[in-house]
Each structure stands twice: as structure tokens, then as C-alpha cells.
Design brief:
The protein is an alpha/beta fold. The protein is about 25% helix and about 25% strand.
Length: about 240
């Protein structure tokens, strides 16, 4: 019997279609829900699309009490103003390297926590802390009974390196989000796949900036462990299909 709270992940903003009720646009946002908290990881590229998709999914933005921004690119932060315009007390976790004017603007409507090192955000949820050099990024680590779920924005520092960092907290069962492989060759993508499998990753739910060729190769390599993902995809740790 499971000992951790069930986790539900809902992709609420993505450029890949999945749920026909929702609008696609370049960017990414994923809602992470446990029994005790609701975290929005990234806010997509624009507020209208984000808020419209939340409404179509009957997700009340007032219930979002924590926001984690992966990195300072507009397709991951663009919906922040609209979300923070909804009344409520929220904490926003941003990499310390974010521009000071952005942090100051957010601080007018929410508590800002600057992240550099790994940090616990809520029960079962932590950030990797800042990873990378050219483009600094943080990812989300979520504990489930089957293992860790790693949620990435774009994986600019490299998905293999991010998984290595996450493995300090346990085995990575599932990787969800953008893997930034859209400009990589088939051979490069296959090498990434091989390294992820060597690191023990069991399932993948790639989207956003991963790229069509990478989708094809990941599906071939992971088989039933490949989760087709786009805007509206819902992954529940309590589903019978979630464990292998």
C-alpha cells in the first residue's frame, strides 16, 4: 500500500495538442497537485492561453498556492502576470539569477523565494536548485510511491545532467516536460536515450521543445513507458497504468 500522497500532473500549457478543448501555443506549464498543495511549474508564454486552458479544465487558479519558474524565457514566464493578478496569497520560486526587475515586479503581488541550492517546496516536492551555466534552470522533483517524477521546463543544462542531480534523492521513475532535443541529430538523441536508461529512468512524457524526431525515438526505445504528452495530458500516480 502506498505511503505517499497521490500526485496528479496536468499539462496546462504546451505547443503539442492533446485535449481538443485546449489552445496550443509555444511554451510550457504543468500543474502538480498533492493532497496538501497545488504547484504550478512555469506559466507558459501568455496569460490569455494559460487562464483559458485552466478555465476549460475547471481548474480554479485561486487554488494555486505555489509557482515555480524554471528559467527566464518568455515561453515559461509569460503567463505570470495574469496568474498573479488573481487574488490570493502565493509564493513564487525563481532562480536567483533572474533579473532583479522581474523579481521586484513579482514581489508586488506574491512572496518571492530566490532559489540557488536544492530546496524543499512542499511535502513530496522540491526543486533541483539552479543547474547550468549559459542558461540557468531549475527543475521540479516530485516523490511518488513508484519513484521520483522529474518535471523540466526546457532542460537547457541537459536532461541527462538534470536526472543525475535528481538521483541524489532517489530513483527517477518518470521524466515530464521539455527536453530541448529539437535541434539534435538522431545519433545525439539516441545517446541521450541510452544514458537516461542507464540512469534508471523508467518512463518518459516529453513535450514542448523535445522535437518530433525525439518523440519518435523515445517512443521506439521506451515502448509502453512512453507517455504521449501535450496540452491537457493528465498523469496520476494512483492510476493502475502508472506503475509498471
Amino acid at each position: 500500500m502506498g505511503t505517499l500522497s497521490p500526485v496528479t500532473l496536468t499539462v496546462v500549457y504546451d505547443n503539442n495538442p492533446f485535449d481538443s478543448r485546449l489552445k496550443t501555443a509555444w511554451g510550457f506549464a504543468c500543474l502538480v497537485e498533492t493532497d496538501s498543495t497545488t504547484v504550478l511549474f512555469d506559466t507558459g508564454g501568455d496569460g490569455a492561453t494559460l487562464m483559458g486552458n485552466l478555465a476549460a479544465l475547471a481548474i480554479d487558479p485561486h487554488c494555486i498556492d505555489r509557482v515555480v519558474l524554471s528559467h527566464y524565457h518568455g515561453d515559461h514566464t509569460g503567463g505570470s502576470d495574469s496568474l498573479l493578478g488573481v487574488e490570493g496569497r502565493r509564493t513564487v520560486y525563481v532562480p536567483r539569477s533572474f533579473p532583479s526587475d522581474f523579481k521586484a515586479r513579482v514581489a508586488q503581488r506574491a512572496q518571492v523565494v530566490e532559489v540557488s541550492e536544492p530546496m524543499v517546496i512542499a511535502d513530496q516536492i522540491r526543486t533541483t536548485g539552479e543547474i547550468g551555466a549559459a542558461i540557468v534552470e531549475q527543475s521540479l522533483i516530485v516523490e511518488t510511491d513508484q519513484g521520483l517524477v522529474l518535471v523540466t521546463g526546457c532542460a537547457h543544462p541537459g536532461i541527462v545532467e538534470i536526472v543525475r542531480q535528481a538521483k541524489r534523492y532517489g530513483d527517477v521513475y518518470l521524466v515530464v516536460g521539455g527536453l530541448h532535443l529539437k535541434d539534435k541529430s538522431a545519433d545525439e538523441i539516441k545517446m541521450v536515450i541510452e544514458m537516461l536508461r542507464d540512469l534508471g529512468v523508467r518512463k518518459v512524457a516529453p513535450c514542448h521543445c523535445t522535437g518530433e524526431e525525439a518523440f519518435r525515438l523515445f517512443k521506439a526505445a521506451f515502448g509502453a513507458g512512453f507517455v504521449p504528452t501535450g496540452v491537457g495530458t493528465v498523469i496520476r500516480s494512483s492510476d493502475a497504468s502508472y506503475p509498471e
